[in-house]
Design goal:
Helix content: over 70%
Strand content: under 5%
Order of helices and strands: HHHHH
Largest sheet: none
Number of helices: 5
Shape: rod-shaped
Radius of gyration: 46 Å
Number of strands: 0
Distance between the termini: 80 Å
Structural class: mainly alpha
Length: about 240
């Protein structure tokens, strides 16, 4: 699938080429004073203004597309150099449209002035200066973005460190609870053994005594068992 940016870029380049071609024609008609020349000049100017509006709309679409790509780089496989080239194209295209519109709105255009070579040299120098300013501005923006990303990574790293500390504390607490449970189960096992021994002794004693004594002994032993249980759980 062809890159939509390249499609619109090609259309913009063609539009700007037509604008420059008609602008040169409009300049040649500047010296004409007849009604036919003036009418043709106005017609060419209207055509240029309409083409400028269309080109500037295309440039705005290109800039919006570039901003969308920069906001979600993971989605688009476009290198940083290519992004810089696209921004440079947008900037220079906008400058060309602005210069063409300024010439159309200049009431003194057509008077004697600098030669075409001098005008081209001045325009080239202005474009170079604008290009340098644009590159410096873009580099500054990229540095700010990278700095913001570094700060976010530092915050994420600190959060992970805190989560690790909390996880370590929870693990230590679980180990302590496991040790307490082991001690509790050990005590319970010893208590069960003691209770079993007491029960066996009670059975032996009950076999040797009659009914009344047996009931008394059972009552005493029950009291003793209750006391032992109370003392165990109270400690």
């Amino acid at each position: 699938m062809e890159d939509p940016f390249e499609i619109v870029k090609e259309e913009t380049e063609c539009a700007i080429a037509d604008i420059n071609k008609n602008l040169e024609r409009w300049k040649k008609l500047a010296s004409g004073t007849s009604s036919v020349a003036i009418q043709e000049r106005n017609s060419v100017k209207s055509k240029i203004l309409s083409a400028l509006d269309g080109a500037q709309n295309d440039i705005a679409d290109l800039e919006e597309a570039v901003q969308s790509v920069e906001s979600d780089r993971n989605r688009f496989n476009i290198s940083q150099d290519e992004m810089m080239n696209r921004r440079r194209f947008i900037h220079m295209s906008r400058e060309q449209c602005n210069r063409a519109r300024e010439q159309l709105n200049n009431p003194k255009f057509g008077d004697a002035g600098p030669s075409n070579v001098d005008r081209y040299s001045a325009a080239q120098q202005s474009a170079n200066r604008s290009n340098e300013v644009f590159i410096e501005k873009s580099m500054g923006e990229q540095q700010q973005i990278m700095q913001a990303q570094d700060e976010q990574l530092n915050l994420v790293g600190k959060s992970i460190g805190r989560l690790k500390e909390i996880g370590t504390l929870i693990g230590d607490e679980v180990d302590d609870q496991n040790e307490l449970l082991d001690e509790f189960y050990g005590d319970m096992g010893q208590t069960e053994k003691r209770m079993s021994n007491v029960q066996r002794k009670m059975d032996k004693i009950l076999e040797k005594v009659d009914g009344k004594k047996q009931n008394c002994i059972i009552g005493v032993l029950l009291v003793i068992m209750i006391i032992v249980v109370i003392l165990f759980f109270s400690t």
